[in-house]
Amino acid sequence: MSNETIDRSRTAAAYDALAAWYDRAISHGELPLFDHLLYPAVQRVLGDVAERSVLDLVCGPGHLSRRIAKRGAHVIGVDVSEEMLRRAREHARSSENAIAYYRMEPTALAASWHSTFDIVVCNMALVDLEDLDGTLTEVRRVLRPAGRFVFSLIHPCFVMPGCEWVEDERGNKLFKRVDRYFEEGYFGKEWYGQGGLRSRLGGNHRTLTTYVRALRSHGFLVAALDEPKPDGHALRLHPQVLGPQLRVPSMLVIEAVPDPRIL
Predict the structure, then answer these.
(1) Residue 254 within a domain
(2) Could you give the number of structural domains in the chain?
């Protein structure tokens, strides 16, 4: 099946419908890859955020927003889904750190936010966005000249549509089969493995080259890159889920900064 034949109608309603599952799954530790790989890697790349102004772009139910605010940052979150934002605001009421949440398109952020934020963070959401260039234009606009853009992705080299682990008769993973890497575009949820976020939403597959070229065209340089893998503690807790991550990474965290030569 060509990705051109797949239904591309994805609206805020789709994310509203996903919100209850997504919020519960993260809150109850049902996504070990997030708890033990993704969030630690994002926070590792972010470093010290105390007293920094941070925009959580496509914040969902605000789990990362709260983690960042707890470390002393001043956080604003934006999303297109009212249900995601409702849940984020509800969680924030019981937090000692104030977080403001707004409904905004990532390609149309508040006009008054020009050069406002020290950091823009976008967690696993660029694959949901059709307009990468429009989003990067806004990220660049709202960042301060010495700001940082930190974003995470499913790893485009190893988690593309149709990839799968090949197993023996006992269910032992032998190797990961990847293909169609250069076929970019939106692929529906049927192209992704069961149980994760992409199996419920689908996503826009882009090559690593496309991401880096897009960053460069919007005046960014890649400053850091992290391919998270589990530590011993995480492996003991979730050996079946996290063990394969020692062999092939499924996530990627990138820090991009404005190129000082073109400020």
Answers:
(1) yes
(2) 1
* Within a domain: 241: yes
The predicted structure's pLDDT at residue 187? 87
In a domain, 97, yes or no: yes
Q: How far apart are CA 68 and CA 251, in angstroms?
A: 20
CA 258 to CA 53: how far, in whole Å? Answer: 17
Strands of 30-133, DSSP E: 53-57, 74-79, 99-103, 117-123
For 194, residues 6+ apart whose C-beta sits below 8 A from its C-beta are none
Q: Tell me which amino acid residue 252 is.
A: L
Q: What is the pLDDT of residues 63-121, one digit of tens each?
A: 999 999 999 999 999 999 999 999 999 999 887 788 999 999 999 999 999 999 999 99
Instruction: Read off the pTM.
Output: 0.92
d(CA 100, CA 246): 37
Residues 149-160 as b or e (16 or more Cβ within 10 Å = b): bbbbbbbbebbb
Q: What percent of the chain has pLDDT over 70?
A: 94
Question: What CATH number does the domain containing 133 carry?
Answer: 3.40.50.150
∠ CA 216-144-203 to the nearest 5 degrees?
Answer: 50
CA distance 156 to 70: 30
Give the CA radius of gyration of the chain: 18
| Position 246 in a domain | yes
Q: How confident is the model at residue 7 (pLDDT cuts 50, 70, 90)?
A: very low
Q: Which residue has the tokens 């969902």?
A: 60
Q: In terms of residue numbers, what domain contains 50?
A: 3-154+207-262
| DSSP states along 210-256 | HHHHHHHHTTEEEEEEE-----HHHHHH-HHHHGGGGTS--EEEEEE
